[in-house]
Write a structure and sequence with these properties.
By secondary structure, this protein is α/β, with parallel strands linked by helices. Helices cover 36% and strands 18% of the residues. The protein is built from twelve helices and eleven strands.
Amino acid sequence: MSALPLSFACGSYDRTRALRDGRVPVRGIDLNSMELGPVELFWRQLRHLEFEVAEMSLSAHIMATANGTSPFVGLPVFPSRVFRRAYVFLHAGAGITRPEDLVGKTIGVPEYHMTAALFIRGFLSDDHGVRADQVQWVQGGQEVPGRLERIELDLPESISLRHEPDRSLDEMLVDGSIDALITASPPPSWLAGSPAVTRLFANPRAAEVEAYHRTGIFPIMHMVTVRRDVVERAPWVPGNLVTAFAQARDLAYQESRDHGASSNILPFYQIEHEQTVREFSEDYWPYGIEANRATLEAAVRYSYEQGLSKRICDIEELFSPALVEEHRV
């Protein structure tokens, strides 16, 4: 039987590179890979379902699953994870010295539903008592005005959210039109060293390590999904894909170790790698449902609490039933 041709769109990651360059084949599948950044990829996939296998926003998949409208089946494979306490930026004159001071403030966000914002609002609520309905939200482009939500929102009246079509969030942060910005990437003003912009957490790494050991949450930004019509035609596809993604991730683990000549451009990479292993484990980028249960359960709860989902779905609903059954055995 000839291999099943499937299109695959994903960002550029060391843990998926071996799939893209062919070092790890997928049994029974001819994977045609395309490298795309998340903003373009999610827009094309959520609006037009262009790819059969694709990296996908965890928040968007939770929303669609909880609301019964997801055209995707999830795999417990997570190409993007980011601790997010470093991504809360403040206007220096806003009078914010601690997270609790955000209550009643105006906060910018590129997209209210984006997964980075989901987890930031989550820890602000869990750890500091700052709920989503205690803030005025402004949604818009971080660097260029006019960015829209990729998916339509149906938020409760308690959530105050307005769209800003004419100014960038970075400009508004610098001049104090918004008090803070939560985002997936540092704004240009911060990178340029503007005195008008500061971080909420002075030592975000230390705060993240403490929170991880306390909660078990390593925020998942993106997961891999398969179009539901593909799984209905070929129910064996998810299992074969998960096996191959794990093999590619394991090669990335192997290549991350010191081989005498650094393959990474960061000067102190090896020291950072050793510290990561000490603070987490050798399997510091885990796949699978059970190894990520704390993070996934937090994400589905956050989605409901922040008005994005109409119910708290069971995390098993996010994944292919065949993988859930295999996992439970």
